[in-house]
């Protein structure tokens, strides 16, 4: 399995094949549809974003609360199509990578390809296992959204599969 250091670059993405299994290492964002909506609303209103998304990878998850002594609770992937209404705008503003589960719309697939972005899938139903790959977790935006807030996590050997690029 290929190990990738985050953040992603277009050169890293170009070197990956559809269906390839990859282990991600380094910083990424987390967020779900409520956070995506706020980001796009800010972009559409020409307001500053609370986090720079250029070159970022976002994992579609809403982690469970961490138990005492743990970094993060169970953090399985959310169905990616829920982010489809917001994804084209975010990619056009620099988002490079997305991680979730399931198919994407034709429009999202087109924008991913056109802008040189990438969509990875990971294992649905394996949130407890995936949480063991998280070595750091800090909420950085929209704390009022609870588990749907945007967090900066650092992962070690986080397993994904290249689904679209």
Q: What does this 3D model show about the protein?
A:
There is one protein chain. With 165 residues, the protein is α/β, with parallel strands linked by helices. It has one domain: Alpha-Beta Barrel (fumarase). Helices cover 23% and strands 29% of the residues. It has helices at 10-14, 33-44, 87-92, 106-115, 127-131, and strands at 2-5, 21-30, 57-59, 97-100, 118-121, 134-141, 150-164. Strands 2-3-4-5-7 form a five-stranded mixed beta barrel. α4 links the parallel β4 (97-100) and β5 (118-121). The longest helix is centred in the first third of the chain and has 12 residues, at 33-44. The protein is globular and about 45 Å long. The two termini are 18 Å apart. The mean pLDDT is 97.
The CATH topology turns out to be fumarase
Rg (C-alpha, Å): 15 Å
CATH architecture: Alpha-Beta Barrel
* First and last CA, distance: 18 Å
Q: Which percent bin holds the helix content?
A: 10-25%
**Strand and helix order:** EHEHEHEHEHEE
Structural class: alpha/beta
| CATH first level | Alpha Beta
How many structural units, i.e. domains?
Answer: 1
Annotation field: number of helices: 5
- SS elements, strand count: 7
Q: Uncertain segments of ≥5 residues (pLDDT<50)?
A: none
> What's the story with the biggest beta sheet?
5 strands, mixed, barrel
